Every structure is written in structure tokens, then in C-alpha cells.
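Subject: mismatched residue count in predicted assembly?

I count 661 residues in my input, but I want to confirm that the predicted structure covers every chain. Input:
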Amino acid sequence: MRRLQSTEAVIAVVLILAMVLIGLVNPAFWGVGNLFSLAKSNVIIGIMALGVLLVMISGGIDVSFPAIAAAALYITVRTMVTLDYDGVLLPFMAACVIGVGLGAFNAFIIDRFKMIPLIVTLGTASIVRGLVLGLLGTSIVNINKMPHGLIAFGSQDIAAATASNGANVGLTAMVLVYGAIALVIHFVLRHTMTGRSVYAYGGDPEAARRAGVNTRRTIYFVYCTAGLLAGFAGLLHSSMIWQANPRDFVGLELDVIAAVVLGGASIFGGRGSVLGTMIGVFTLVMVKNSLILMKVDTTWQRVVVGAIIILATAITAWRDRKKLA
Amino acid sequence: MTAKAENKPFFRRLLGEDASIIQLGVITLAIFVLMSAMNPDKFLRYYNFESITYVMPELGILSIAMMVAMLTGGIDLSIVGIANLAAITAGIYFRHPAVAEAIAAGGAGVVLHTIMGVLIALTVGLSAGLLNGILISRLRIIPILATLGTGQVFAGLALVLTGGPAIVGFPQTWNWLGTGKLLGIAAPFWVLIVVAAIVAILLRRTHLGVNLMLIGTNARAAVFAGIRSSRMILYSYALTGVMAAIAGILLSGRTNSAKADFGASYLLQAVLIAVLGGTNPAGGKGKVLGVLLALVALMFLSSGMQMMRTSNFMIDAVWGGFLVLVIAINYLRSRK
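Triage response: the counts match. Full output below for your records.
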């Protein structure tokens, strides 16, 4: 019975109701092609959301991850093009290293100068975007120049089906990558000392410190992991859409934060789960994608996303109201 | 002996209370000297300073608005959305056939309709600010998320109203607000001075200002002191919304257009200027004078760098670097 009252269950019910509603308005929602493309749209936002989840559990907020992701993908792909290198493993490692490095920079400022994460990450986002666009330029690496290895990696499918209009549609294999990452994060958060210390730090930093949590290590772990996931997701995105755009992901922070909050994480820290976040991401992506299916004008998208943020935060604020009293 | 005793507290007060202002003055002066030295024949021209007085006000008013939101430990991420929505609503009013006809006819009608447009924009700003205030003070949503959400809604509504492209064709009187001159000084600069003076008086000399500082310093103590916190916070966000609308009027007046995604980089810059101006983002501390000094410093910096043909992207990076630097300086100073 308690399972049914958990935050995840509530969001799942909301999600199912939304799916039924959208399906009633437009049955095309349940088409294989639409479902596969929905799953695909979850991958990148989902991986980034897992990083943001960690940050939010620790009581912080990160708005620099889209800039980090864009930097990691653009630096990596441009280097590959220059060196005429065509591999997969090494570039992904490079993107992860760039992400971890920039995440460590965030952690350093937040930990060393005791500054509010929002303001620090606003600053680093501006630095990273400015430097990438200013030093490397703004030209997009298109499919004709994209390394073939990356394209081949990003376009693998695990299942194929024939849509009602006769087109062949595939389910991207990247959902497996997303699932694997989610499992790892879930395991770390639930079953390791590092994961528990993130919850403890988010619940009450001072109490966590007195209980023996190494707060500095916790902060570095949180922001470095968020950077790592952003860097990885950036290059994965690039290999899935077959181009590298240094201006990619502008404004994505809002969607991802909305999804994580929708998934039940509390901005006060100490609360949040991987499953809830994944459901939150799925709900947000589905609503955005389905606005078109429901014949809503695309200009309304931002209003809907904003309304979702307000609604989700109002509900979590109501849930957490005792903390404020 | 007595003179010493009198002098010391005064000196200490000067250093203790106004050290941040002095530090800012020094930074501003240093940037001014540096930029003058690097662009010897361009920077010190009258034209350069004149053009700064046209560009500066909209950002300055947004920064003061951000400072007011930060006084209670909050933040307002929706100010740019409010500014654009206010300008666009006014633009749509001017587009209305009856209004457009009256404006084309000239005469007193133009001024009257411009005043109506300003009132409409300010009402939009006030309503948006009240919405933020209600979400934050009544529903107890944390300011970052509440204004993140409303910012999306405002920008989204602006997009819905315009359908994407910019709204053009504001009346000339409206453009005068952004490009005109009064007594030899830029009209928008006058607006900045008036807004800054009003907010400074509000914060230093009224109940509202003192209460806001107290709420920001210690929210719980403020409640026990009998302050109606939620009402005060509601007022502060309403004020922020109105100021954002004023900035929107100036921006649309200067560019003769209004668009849903104008001035996106202003958000970071407003946060930066507020923090640089000695505002404590955790609440309780903030001065209009500090914000104005920081604004001037950054205006000198970006105009000087533009003269050196630095790319706009690099200027963005420098602004971000500056923010991090100021955070570090403030931290090191506060530890002393």
C-alpha cells in the first residue's frame, strides 16, 4: 500500500492518464513509429537529467550542463576531423574527460568560495559557451565531415518494425546505454557510501559533516558526475543526429530541470530517485512531442513546459511544506 | 584623545559599511584607465560615453530589479521574459487599427496613446510580478523554480502573441523613450536615474526596504518580529516585475521592435551586476549605488573590448569569468 503512495507511483499514474488522453485525441500516438521515436528522444535528456538529479539531491542546481555538453561534443568532433581520426571509444572517453574537468571547475568554485551553485553555474556556462564559440568558431560540422565511426555507432538499432505507413522504423540501441547508466546511478545512490552521503549532504550539510561525511568529496563527486554525464550525452547526441553544432542545447537546462522536478526530486535536497526522474523525463518529452499530435500550435510549447514546471514545483512545495514552517 | 575616539568609529564605519563600494570604485576606475590606455584614440571620446548612456539603462534597471529580488534571498529568472512580454503587449496595442489610425493622424493623440502603451506595459509587468510573488510567498515555491517556470510561460506567451517574428512600427514618441534626449542627456538615462532614486529611497527610508533586508538576513527572526513576510515578498516581486517592464519599454524604444527572444544574455548580466555590486544572493544585503557602480564598470569593459574587436562570444566569456572572480574576491574579503 505504501508503494502506491510513493512519489514515483503518483507520477506514473499521471503519466498513464496523460498517455490514455493523448491516445484518445490522436490514435497515431500508439503507432510503433511514434513510440520508437519517443524512446529515442528520451535518451539524451534522460542521461543529462540523471546528472541534474545528483546535483538536486545534494541541494544544488546546475545550469551549466548544456554548455558543458556542447563544449565536449564540439571540441571532440572538431579534433577528430582535424586529426582525421575515426574511432568510437577514445572520443567518448575524451568527451567524458572534458565533462569531468568542467564539472570539477564548478565543484572547486562552489566548495572553495561557498557560493550558491546557481550563480556559479550561470557564470561557468557563460565562460564555457563564450570560449568555445569565440575560440573554435561557430561553424557546424555536418554529416559529410562527421567521422563515420560515430555515425555508425549512433545509428544502431535493437529492434525493427514496419509502421502503418509502410516505413521501416527502428528502436535505437542507445536506449540500452541510457538504461545501463540509469542502473549504475541507481546502484550508486542506493547502495554505496558515496551515494548515501549525497542524500545526507542534501538533507542537511552541517549534520552530514558532523556525522563524518566528507563534504568536499561529496561536492566534487556530484558536480564531476554531472559533468561526465553531460559530456557523454553531448557526444552521443552528436553521433545520433550526425552533426556537431556548438550552439546545441541552448535552453535545454529548463526542460531537464523541469523533468527532474516533475520526477519528484526536491530542490531543497535530500529527495529524489532515478526511477522518478526517468518517469519525469518520459512525461515531459512525451507531452512536448505530443503537442503536435494533438494539433496544438508549436508556439505553445514553452508555455506548456513553463506551466508544467510551476505545477510540479507547486506540488513538491506542498509536499515539502513542513520543512519551511 | 577625544578626537581620536570620534574618528575611529567613523573611519571604521567607512571601511566596514562602505568597503565594498570603495572596492567597486577602484575596480571601475581601474577598468576605465585600462580601457583608455588600450584604445587611446577611441575610448575617451564624448560619443563613446554618450552611446553608453543609451545602452546602459535597460540593463541597469534589470540589475536593480534582480538586486531587489535577491534582498530576500530570492532571485528572479523571469525578468527578461517579463520585459519582452510587456513590450510586445504594448506593440500589439499600437497595432490595433483604431490606435494605429489615431497615431497616424498625429497631434495629442500620439502622446495619449503612448502613455496608454506605457501603462499597458507596466500593468503587464505588475501582473507578472504579482504572479511570481504569489507563487513564491503564498504557494511557497522556491524562487529559482517559480521564476524559471514563469519565465518560460512569459516567453512562451510572447511567442504565441507574435508567432515568432519581431513586432515593429512603434510610434515615434515611444522610440523617443529609448533614443531621445532631454536637457542634453539621453532620455533612457533619465529613466534609469529616476528608477534608481526611487528604489534607493524605498530600500533605505521605508518600512518595505527595512523589512526586506530583515527577511533576507533572518527569515525566522523577521516572522517573530511581527513582519508580514509573505506580503513584503509579494511586494518585492511586484516591484521587480514593474522594473522589468520599464526595461522592456526602453529596449523596444531603442530598437524600435519587440521580440520574444530579445535580450536573452541580459539575465546572466543582471545577476552578475547585482552580485558584483555587493548584493548578497543569500539575502539581506544590497545597495542601489553598488549596482550602479558595477553597471558602469561592466559597460566600460564591454565597450572597450568591442573597440578592440573582441568577438561578442569572448566578451560573454569575460563576463562569466568576471562573475567567478568577484565571487572569489567577495569570499576572501568576507573572511577577514
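The mean pLDDT of chain A is 85. Marking this ticket as 'not a bug'.
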